[in-house]
Amino acid sequence: MKNIFIILFSLIVLFSNAQNLTLDELMTLRKSNITEVKHYLTNKNWEFSRYKQGGNKIPNMYEFNYQNYISTVLYMEHPKGNTNLSRIIVLTTSDKKAQEYAERVLSFNPKHLQGKYDELAIATNVYQGATTTFIFESYQTPGSKSHYYLITILNNQDYNKNYRINALVFYKLNT
Question: Can you give the pTM of this predicted structure?
Answer without folding.
Answer: 0.77
